[in-house]
Amino acid sequence: MSKIQEICRDVRRDIVTTLATAGCGHPGGSLSAVEIVTELYFEKMHVDPANPRDPDRDRFVLSKGHATLMMYSVLAERGYFPAEELKSFRKDWSRLPGHPDMNKVPGIDMTSGSLGQGLAAANGMALAGRLQKRDYHVYVLMGDGELQEGMIWEAAMAAAHYRLDHVIAFVDRNGLQIDGTTEQVMGLEPLADKWRSFGWHVQEVDGHDTAALGAAVDTAKAAKGRPSVIIARTVKGKGVSFMENKVEFHGKAITKEQAAMAMAEMEG
């Protein structure tokens, strides 16, 4: 097991223990995005946990804002705050709310929650960087379900129009949303062709292969004059067998017994 794979395993452990302690959260879409965000924060993004507001840092927008179990676990493992603080997730007094708050949580660059808004926010950050003559990149993670919202496609059109080549978007293509499969609710395919038709550089990768994700980021950075999207094919609930591809675990807590089962799987 590589170092980055070990970190991904630790992030998944954090997700499970935090979910069991809090008694609430969104495990499915958190587990599906572990490799994407871990690879970014540990291998690709220019960030410094000791200086989380560095004006030259790369930015990250969690457009699928309900996936905070994953987001906070990655930030804790990266050193933005002690992992012990994950126990406070969603408590009334906690600085780790159910959706990320940029005014409370170190390492959060944009408050999110209402789906469909993250890409527009990323565009604004990229335009600001251009005006300030800074060279940072802006990464944004979108769920596939939120691509059914019109605001995403308005932002996609704008990013191409303004040639925002410092915007690198990820789609967590796990195929499930709260109401069922994305294709039953509002079909998205052919998804890659849709993005291409909007003028984006498009790649499709295995969203659980950190090497492939890292290579895709490098390729995206080299694509000048247009924004890039990486469609990451993932499994909702990845790493916990009784959650994998189960729509009910979009936003469902687990028992202590289920948590023990999940932890045992990850040890194996």
Overall description:
Helices cover 41% and strands 12% of the residues. It is of the alpha/beta class and 268 residues long. It has one domain (3-267): 3-Layer(aba) Sandwich (Rossmann fold). Helix 9 (210-222) links the parallel strand 6 (201-206) and strand 7. It starts with a helix and ends with a helix.
Could you give the topology of this structure?
Blueprint: H1 3-22, H2 27-32, H3 34-44, E1 59-62, H4 68-78, H5 118-131, E2 138-143, H6 150-161, E3 167-173, E4 176-177, E5 180-181, H7 182-186, H8 191-197, E6 201-206, H9 210-222, E7 228-233, H10 256-267
Parallel strand pairs: 1-2, 2-3, 3-7, 6-7
Antiparallel strand pairs: 4-5
Biggest sheet strand order reads: 1-2-3-7-6
| Total helical elements | 10
Portion in beta strands: 5-15%
The assigned structural class equals alpha/beta
Q: What would you say the CATH architecture is?
A: 3-Layer(aba) Sandwich
Distance from N terminus to C terminus (CA atoms, Å) equals 12 Å
Write a concise synopsis of the structure shown.
With 268 residues, the protein is α/β, with parallel strands linked by helices. 41% of the residues lie in helices and 12% in strands.
